[in-house]
Amino acid sequence: MVTINSGSNPQIKEIVKLQKSARERKKKQMFVVEGYRLAGEAASSGRLRKLYLSESAVAECRAGEHWDTLGQYPHEVVADVVFRGMSDTVTPQGILGLAEMPCYSLDDILQDRRRSILLLDDIRDPGNLGTIMRTAEGADMSGVILSRESVDLFNPKVVRSTMGAIFRVPFYYAEDLVSAAGKVRQGGIPLYGTMMQGSILYTEADYRMGAAVVIGNEANGISEPIAALCEGVRIPMAGKLESLNAAVSAAIMMYEVFRQRCL
């Protein structure tokens, strides 16, 4: 197999564009997965399209436990120095893949029997979003609805932080989050927003028949139009803290919804 030795190779240039540009990812409906685990997750989901292996990692990758599956996909060998240039990580694992974006509709989430939804109102931190998606899978949520201003789910850091949940948790970017929230309520699912001045403790609400948890922007909280649609709930805090990290608040709320649903 011929090794790609130049960063000017069209395939390499395309990978770099996908790593850096949300617009390019949206245009091509493709994104990059890095590392053996995420490549395997992409393959398991049926969304992996091609692999790239660094020259020094070829033997290790081909000896890996998942190579029986991964080896069925087209793959290229890339010189180590070129691979480092196309990778978004400081210490690349030597395997990188192109994956097709999953796609869901709002109805896919609203019609789920679990009736446990997370709404994200302008979440901007990639690490927070990735952690939230990973936790949403663990808490058995129906899906995640995001405002269009929220960080791109296929940002490389978000993808890594999801630990594969990006392939399993339904999501939907709403052009108008207020309208989407209204449709959630029309479906008989109440909205609960985490607020400093929430009227009740988060454990006092009854989520057993369905719940949509709203988490606001890291700096500004839930926007006023969305807050007007929510029942405010508060998470108790000791000390002089003004708020919790968005991903922590989301985890607390999602697991309380899950706990009540399992009773």
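Next protein, fold it too.
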Amino acid sequence: MSAALWTYPEVAAALGGRLVGAAPDAFSAVSFDSREVTAGTLFFAIRGVREDGHRYVVDALQNGAALAVVSQPTPAMERAGALLVVDDTLDALRDLARAARARAAGRVIAVTGSVGKTTTKEMLKLAFAATGRVHAAEKSFNNHWGVPLTLARMPRDTDVGIIEIGMNAPGEIAPLARLAKADVAVVTAIAESHLGAFAGLGGLAGIAAEKAAIFGALAEGGVAVFNADAPHADILHGRATDAGAADIITYGERPGAEVRLLEAVDTTEGVSLRADARGRVLSFAVGMPGRHVALNALAVIAAGLALDADLTALARALAAMRPPPGRGGRARLEVAGGEVLLIDESYNANPASMRAALRLLAAARPAGGGRRVAVLGDML
């Protein structure tokens, strides 16, 4: 039988609070979504802008939750199962995240950037799974709810935890970075995303400074990794230096990048590339096309250098990489008169991601003199 994710004494020590009902022995999962609750789940009733998790506590307990963490208990909740009453449930989830990070014997990689966060996170997950036990954020769980949830779900025997950190406005990266307390912090790109929130803060320079906040909470001996081709890379380097990073590893196409792209060729299966990793030349393939994907792969190699991992194993694993939903997946559709290749880049849009998507479209080779058609919506 696998070890419990959390025991009740561990949860009680991390959260405090007042127990109502019988304390369970242990928990197999953590969630704030009553729809995904299974037997043994620790459920957090989080209050959001549009929904209040307290509305679903009874459902969660009836679905098998072993304990619900609440701030506003009701008689109906008490009849449905055991409760742990706290002042603020989101603060309680953060407390559990801190406890998870404190008990972790493995290493933690945190990833941020204007574009490429989720794809890079998925590539790190795939690559490091070839060398040990990996825990990573689901989907794009990268905000003030998703980061603590990802940490709280991290098993105690994890070798490498991978945390994705996002932001919509100034000041959001630093508190999430403090939760992650990364051994390796990666910045994938600085691009025209959320520019409106930084209109009076220097535009792209302000975005670079915000992303660089991830370096301010590195664990002792932590390493900063960033894209040397990014605008305002000097800001990233300066912030990493000021934070006392034990090492700074840059990657990209620019001469002087410590993990440098030497060649990238799109194939029918993805992209084939060669890279120089601090004097060691690696040749490998990634199962997704695009030069931007090749650069994300360099971030994986740089993280491997930071953790003294088996670079050959990491690189070889990336051949099995497939596009996350809405990020370049391909499907062939039968239509009247022939076939259409659909390239799905529907997840999100900013100028940088649109440029990458249009480059992919331009590289496609329609059969029989066919056309390339871009279907574009609003860039929100």
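About the second fold: The radius of gyration is 22 Å.
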